[in-house]
Every structure is written in C-alpha cells, then in structure tokens.
Amino acid sequence: MIRPAGTERVVLETSQELERRGIEVRIFTSGSRDALFNTPFSKISTENIRATKSPLLHLYVDLLIAKKLIDAASCWADVIILHHGQGMASYAQRKYGLDCIPFYHANNNLDWSLYGSLRSVAPVYTLPLRIIESNCLARTPVAFANSRDLMIQVGAYAKEAKFVVIPLGVDLTKFHPSNEDEEFILMAGRYDPTNNFELAIEALASTSYRLVIAGVHDSKHEGYAQQLRAMVKTSRELSRRVEFVTLEEAELISYLQRCSIFLSPRKYGYLGLASLEAMACGKPVIAFDPGRGIEGCPPVLACGDHSQEWRTTISRLMEAKGDRTALGKKAFQFIEENHTWSKSVEKMLRVVSSLEARKPLLLS
C-alpha cells in the first residue's frame, strides 16, 4: 500500500473531515494518482479519470488533466476545490457556472533552482504558466494557500489573486504523544529535492547518532532517492547508522512516537505536514530557516543552510533529554491550538458558504 504524502494527504484528510460533518465528497483524480487515495482507511468515493502524463511538459499537461477532471466533476459537484492544475480554476465558472477554488500546496513547479542543468531556460519555460495562473487568479473569487509564505510567493506573479490561508492540520486521534524515547533521530517525507534530506545526512556525519529516513517514493524524483542512498552507502560510518525505511501510516506513527528528535531541513518558510505530525506526537523538531524566520513562530529549533550548525544543535539536544521533553510538550500544545484538520476545514467551509451566499470574503 502507498502511504499518501503532501497534497494527496491533505486531500484525504480534509475530505474525511468534511464527510464527518455530513457533507458528501468525491475525489476526482487522474490514473497516476489513483492508488494514493484508495487506502483501507478511506471511505471517500473516488472517480478515476484516465489521463496521460508527460514528464517533459508536465506543468502544462497538468492543466489539461485539470480541465478533464473539472468536466467530469461538473455533473455532480456544487463546489470544486482544485489541488492540481490551479490555472484552470476559472474554466469551471466560465463553462459550467461552478465555483472552483484553486488550492496551492507548494510552488515547486516555479522554483527554478530545481531544474538542474536546464535552470537557465526555466524562466522562459514557465513564463506561459505564470501568465495563465495570473489571469486565472484575477478572475477567481478566492484561492486557498496552506501558508502565508506560499501565498506571498504566488502573489509575486499573480498580483490580483485573493487568498485565504488554510493551515495544514493533524488528526490528533492518531498522532499523539506516547512518552517513548528510544534515542534515534527521524526524518520523513517525499523523496523530493526541496525536502533537502542531504543536509541532515551531512549533519549526522562524525556523530554517533542513528538516523531513520522514512521516505515516500515519487516517480518524478526517483533519481534523488538513489542519490541519497548512494551518499550513505559510500560512507562506511554513515552506512552503519542511517537507515532507509518505507512505512505505512500506523508504522510511521509508531516511529514518530518513539524517536528522540525529528529533522525538517525542507526549503520552505513554514512547517510541513511531517513536522506537524511529529510535534503532535510530542517530539522536538529542528527545522530549516530560509533566512526570514519560520511562519507562525512555532516552538522548534531553527537552523540555516550549514551542516555544522545542524550537527551542533542535534548533539546538544540529544545530550539533554529534559530539554527534549520540555520542547516536545510545547510542540504538542502548539499543534493542539493551531493545526487540527477540524479548524482547517471550518475555515474552508466559511469561505465556501460566503461564496455560495455571494457575501464579501474576509481574506488573509
């Protein structure tokens, strides 16, 4: 079974919370993502719309796939929340008179640093997409973003976009403290260059600590996963202490509850789902600070882009169990107050209700 991560995880969790509130939900998805939603834990109805992906032109093919999904959903839905191909959102209103809210989860597609040897042509390649999205967002009553940081990034090229921030959430019935500490370090998430796992691996060099990497494979970035494994394999001392595992959700929760520290070197100005779930389990988190602080001022230890800084912070925390416990308690309280799916979905529903009633929206 594939463990959903990132956007797919958000879609599942918010859909399940909506269903608990008596709101009927269907997930319309392309064949490439179908398996991510068909889990034993989900009772959400899923409609699989066949579509062909193209690795070379995937940014633009995503728009065509989004159009097909909107066409399929239009005969059933009252409101559409569009998680991929966001530049097609205004098509739903134009063609079917349907409210369609684009939901932004990341801005990786327009991060030119991820294009490697093609970085020099990335601005030209992505320019049409930025224009399409900008025009779409100007005509769309509202868009969702999972953080103010991401809202600002998209707003830099979509000046007329009207955003509401929908924070990421955690299911506290599943992710909660167990007061275990087995003195290993954990890192989890999709194998994607933006997660910056190599920084944490470098930081663990010349230490005695055990690191477990619970990765989720992504066909687009399989080369990155192989690069990380090679990085560990070629170092005798790292190969003895760094372990790669593939976990289902129940296993992930167990690892989160038993680890000592969770590392999040991802290159964003806000915490991702993996970090929030670790905090919900009462674990101290060391997170990447891109230089402008971490959104929401969470109770985490922040480090920059130097592995030595990470190594020093990790060592200091691993040698102070009392500090780990205290920081973990603050982490759990922060999640309880700010990051539950119930609160996230409540905010989504307020926006949808305002749209349906054609009332003014309170934007944030």
On the 0-100 scale, what is the average pLDDT? 89
- The separation of the N and C termini measures 37 Å
CATH secondary-structure class of the largest domain: Alpha Beta
Give the H and E element order.
HEHEHEHEHEHEEHEHHEHEHEEHHH
Might you state the CATH topology name of the largest domain? Rossmann fold
Numbering strands along the chain, what is their spatial order in the largest sheet? 9-8-7-10-11-12
Q: Uncertain segments of ≥5 residues (pLDDT<50)?
A: none
Characterize the biggest β-sheet: 6 strands, parallel
Task: Give a brief rundown of this model.
With 364 residues, the protein is α/β, with parallel strands linked by helices.
SSE topology:
Blueprint: H1 6-20, E1 26-30, H2 34-37, E2 45-49, H3 58-73, E3 79-82, H4 89-96, E4 99-104, H5 122-139, E5 143-145, H6 148-155, E6 163-165, E7 185-190, H7 197-204, E8 211-216, H8 222-233, H9 236-239, E9 242-245, H10 249-258, E10 261-264, H11 273-280, E11 285-288, E12 301-303, H12 307-318, H13 321-338, H14 341-357
Parallel strand pairs: 1-2, 3-4, 4-5, 5-6, 7-8, 7-10, 8-9, 10-11, 11-12
Helix pairs in contact: 1-14, 7-12, 11-13
